[in-house]
Each structure stands twice: as C-alpha cells, then as structure tokens.
Amino acid sequence: MKRAAAIAALATLVLATGCEREQRRFEPPGAAASAPDPTRATSVRPGATDAAQPGVTPASQAANYEENAYSVAQGKRLFRWYNCSGCHGQGGGNMGPPLMDAKWIYGHEPADIFRTVVQGRPNGMPAFGGRIPEDQLWQIVSYVRSMSGQLRKDVAPSRGDTLSGPSPENERTQERPVAASAAKP
C-alpha cells in the first residue's frame, strides 16, 4: 500500500513539474522603451517633436500596441472613460469627425492619430499631451484605428459593453483611408 502511494506521489510530482506555465506580462508594451518621469502623467507634450524620445519611433510604438488585443480593448475602455464618445459619438461622429469611415482629416497612420490626440487640432480637439500617460495614448490610438477596420480581426474588440450600438470592431470591413480634401461628400 505504501509503495502504491509513493508511486502515485512520484507520478504527480513528475506530471506537475512537466507542465510549462504560460507567461503573462502585465506591463504596457512600450514600458521598457522609455522611462517615464514619475512627476508627470507623460513626457509627451503638445508641440514636442518625435526626436524627444531617441530610439523610439512612432511606428515601433504603434506596432507594440496594435498587435496586442488587450491593449486595443483597454483603448476602447479609455476611449469611453476620457469621454471621446462625447464628441466622436461611438466613432460615428457628432461634434467631432467620425472615426469609422475612410475620411481622415489629419492622417490615418498611428503617428498622425497620436499627434492629433497629444497636440489637439484647431476648432475643437483639445490637446491631451501631459494629461494622459503615454501607454494609454497608444492604446487609444490603436483602438481608434480598429474602429475603421485597420487592425486584424483577432486583435480588434469583438463587442461593446452597451446594449446597442455600432457593429463590433472585428466585424467591420476595412476602410481605405483617403485625405479629407480628396474625399467626396
């Protein structure tokens, strides 16, 4: 009886140590790229150039967040928390321009959207640089791009938390961004 118990205990030990645990990283994707100033929400300021962060390009930052479904989902949450829906109306437009169509006034690339959020735009869009942490800015940027179908289907959020609203981001067709001046009304 003792021998059977010892064999069972040894088999359990071998099976338990044989499993490889999944590694989950809960740091923001760009956290290692730049050390933030602890006294400020973000080191990104309105009017600052991209050269302020040597070694970190907007394209590399955007790729870190756009390939991460968790970051895009967090961007969706932050979009609602920072009341972006108040002006952009769930992405369909209201006082602010719609974010679900192919017309992009200031550019559709991640760096363009990031610059718009940080620096603001004339006639309505406030500057959020210095008020929102940089990792949250990139999460919002990646979510905004998902609204017009610019991200992969497996990364884009699948449903909203509201009872009704627009179709889920991962079911939208990809819009082909065009400059606002070239777009026909």
Written account of the structure:
The chain has a two-stranded parallel sheet. The protein has helices at residues 2-18, 58-66, 69-81, 85-88, 110-119, 134-147, and strands spanning 103-104, 178-179. The longest helix has 17 residues, at 2-18. The protein has a domain at 58-185: Cytochrome c-like domain (Cytochrome Bc1 Complex, Chain D, domain 2). It starts with a helix and ends in a 6-residue tail after the last strand. With 185 residues, the chain is mostly helical. The chain is 36% helix and 2% strand.
What would a concise description of this structure say?
The chain has 185 residues and is mostly helical. The chain has six helices and two strands. It has a domain at 58-185: Orthogonal Bundle (Cytochrome Bc1 Complex, Chain D, domain 2), CATH 1.10.760.
List keywords for this structure.
single chain; 185 residues; mainly alpha; Cytochrome Bc1 Complex, Chain D, domain 2; two-stranded parallel ribbon; 6 helices; 36% helix
Topology (elements, then pairings):
Blueprint: H1 2-18, H2 58-66, H3 69-81, H4 85-88, E1 103-104, H5 110-119, H6 134-147, E2 178-179
Parallel strand pairs: 1-2
Secondary-structure element string: HHHHEHHE
The total of helices stands at 6
* Rounded Rg: 22 Å
CATH superfamily of the domain at 58-185: Cytochrome c-like domain
**Approximate strand percentage:** under 5%
- Helix amount: 25-40%
**Net shape:** elongated
Sequence stretches where pLDDT stays below 50 over 5 or more residues: 50-55
- DSSP summary, beta strand count: 2
